[in-house]
Specification:
45% strand, 2 helices, mainly beta, four-stranded antiparallel beta sheet
Length: 581
């Protein structure tokens, strides 16, 4: 799980880069990350660690400096380091020491100017595997954060989370830390959970502390103890304020703490009507302030019956009523002045004018399953099982829907036999070019049908359906898995637990080419990527990929297909439709 999350972050961080023909990818034997030139020749090879025979890929990419920062393999020394590799030359500019650590996590700031390297020493292996294997003993252990300037490749700041002057932590047997970087990259927040007991798999932390460090300032560390379980926290856009939500033990109220990081002051405001569902507790929404409360910064807090605004000065606005249930989805307008809310159990669109504090509803002709922005103008669409419909930035519904499935017949009305329909359920929906979208088609349970719908957003119609796998191929895979299941059942002793393999087909993953004419669908059943020609609605070719690949993306020049998965990263040349090697 940790490797997958790291690779997804890495993939998204690579997307803005205009990568040339040179590539970097994971090599499993021996475990390394290799950097290659345009001819496919390895220029640099950096050894990396493995865990349970899976390569540990820890890489962050800085767009401004055009460098990749790679965690080097530990080797025999406890000292750890990262390599700063120039993506222009594929060579190591500098090896940067970051201290001792059994485990290391790299976090890149949003502006790409700093890399935060957290090292954990004395990991308790006997505590079990993820997610608790990175818990560390308090006695004699350390948890360090080194801040690397990506311009100079120098460590500019270093913080010891467990032994920071002015931020003494309570006694504990184990601690666990989580890092968050402010949007401007000037501050780093460490959430530290302390555990007193020996068994912590299902236990809650005995205490929680928030420590905030300034990257370029000698100001003392800010340590914050809410005195109650923390459910969420969020920096303001300028990074000068921190909003923290904490709940009481009986969940009858929720406290919102507004911390001024410049002055070191804290305001506490109690919300008496917190959401009844715990997953909605502490939900912060960055919308515009209501009229009369145009403070420079503030946050909207989800309550049991709506949303309320809390300003940086502690003012609390009136509650705007709207229900946030289990399957609630919401989107802000592009200017953050309107909030749109849908519920998968009702056919209603809720529109909240955040400035005026008003709430209105619009009936929908279909129960919504997702809200997504499509096209170059980021037009907002509500997608249901039968149709999709545009929404304006003030909440007005488009008059003309795009029919996805055959509408129910009413009276003598019929349906045009030439219309194209999903004959399934819409899943992932992405933009393709200026006026098209693509929809993955799934069955009722969410399993893939290996079909992709192409939607003409300009002319409001479902244009065509492209099959990425034939029904014969699908049947063969399912039959093989069913036979494997029968064999496992027959060979497993009755006294042993039976672990059955997955029989249904896996879902797919979509990526759109930058030219607006190509679409790529990853198939994790036969480990290929179908290259779809959008104008002709046909599969041009299938590109084989490693069986570790679980997600794909396209770099900006449209020449590279980025493939990632647990312990694996690869760049495929789309011009040659072969791996760069």
């Amino acid at each position: 799980m940790r490797c997958s999350a790291i690779l997804l972050v890495l993939l998204s961080s690579c997307l803005p880069l205009r990568l040339p023909a040179q590539t970097f990818e994971t090599q499993k034997k021996p475990p390394a990350i290799v950097f290659k030139d345009a001819a496919g020749t390895v220029v640099t090879s950096i050894p990396i660690d493995t865990k349970d025979h899976v390569p540990v890929v820890e890489v962050s990419v800085s767009v401004p400096s055009n460098r990749a920062y790679v965690l080097n393999g530990s080797g025999k020394s406890a000292q750890r380091s990262i390599s700063a590799v120039s993506l222009a030359t594929q060579k190591v500019d500098r090896v940067i020491g970051i201290g001792e650590g059994n485990e290391v996590e790299l976090v890149m700031s949003a502006d790409g100017r700093h890399v935060f390297a957290q090292t954990l020493r004395k990991v308790i292996e006997e505590m079990g595997r993820q997610p608790y294997e990175h818990l560390q003993k308090r006695e004699g252990s350390s948890s360090l954060i080194n801040v690397v300037d990506t311009n100079s490749n120098q460590v500019v700041s270093s913080y010891d989370l467990l032994n920071t002057p002015g931020a003494a932590l309570p006694a504990s047997r184990f601690v666990e830390t989580f890092l968050t970087v402010s949007p401007d990259g000037e501050r780093v927040l460490a959430k530290i959970d302390g555990f007193e007991g020996r068994v912590v798999r299902t236990g809650s932390p005995s205490w929680v502390r928030l420590l905030v460090f300034s990257v370029n300032s000698a100001k003392p560390t800010l340590a914050f103890d809410p005195g109650a379980p923390i459910v969420s926290y969020k920096f303001s856009q300028d990074g000068n304020f921190l909003f923290v939500a904490a709940e009481d033990k009986e969940r009858r109220s929720e406290s919102v703490h507004v911390i001024n990081l410049e002055k070191g002051t804290t305001l506490n405001r109690v919300v008496d009507d917190p959401p009844s569902r715990r997953e909605k507790l502490g939900t912060f929404i960055e919308g515009a302030a209501p009229s009369g409360m145009e403070s420079k910064h503030g946050i909207w807090v989800v309550t049991a019956r709506g949303v309320r605004f809390v300003s940086e000065t502690g003012e609390i606005g009136n509650e705007v009523g709207v229900s946030f249930e289990e399957n609630t989805a919401y989107q802000l307008s592009l200017d953050h002045t309107f909030l749109f809310v849908t519920d998968a159990h009702s056919d209603v669109l809720h529109v909240i004018d955040l400035k005026k504090g008003t709430h209105s509803t619009h009936p929908l002709s279909d129960v919504p399953t997702q809200m997504v922005r499509l096209g170059p103008a980021n037009q907002l669409w509500i997608v249901g099982s039968r149709e999709m419909r545009a929404i304006s930035e003030v909440g007005e519904l488009g008059e003309r829907p795009i029919l996805l499935n055959k509408p129910e017949k009413s009276g003598a009305e019929g349906t045009d036999s030439e219309n194209v329909f999903l004959d399934g359920y819409p899943r992932e929906t992405i933009t393709v070019g200026d006026d098209h979208a693509a929809i993955l088609i799934a069955n009722k349970k969410g399993g893939s049908l290996h079909r992709v719908a192409l939607v003409d957003l300009k002319n409001f119609r479902l244009e065509s359906i492209v099959a990425t796998m034939s029904k014969a191929e699908q049947s063969k895979i399912i039959a093989g898995r069913f036979a494997e299941t029968l064999a496992i059942v027959a060979l497993t002793p009755r006294t042993s637990p039976i672990i059955l393999p997955r029989i249904s087909l896996a879902n797919e993953f979509l990526a759109a080419g930058s030219d607006g004419r190509s679409l790529y669908a990853l198939d994790t059943d036969n480990h290929t990527v179908s290259m779809i020609d959008v104008p002709n609605a046909s599969v041009l070719k299938r590109i084989p990929v490693n069986d570790s690949v679980t997600t794909i993306g396209i770099n900006r020049d449209g020449k590279g297909l980025l493939c990632a998965g647990p312990g694996f990263l690869q760049v495929i040349s789309l011009e040659a439709a072969t791996t760069a090697n």
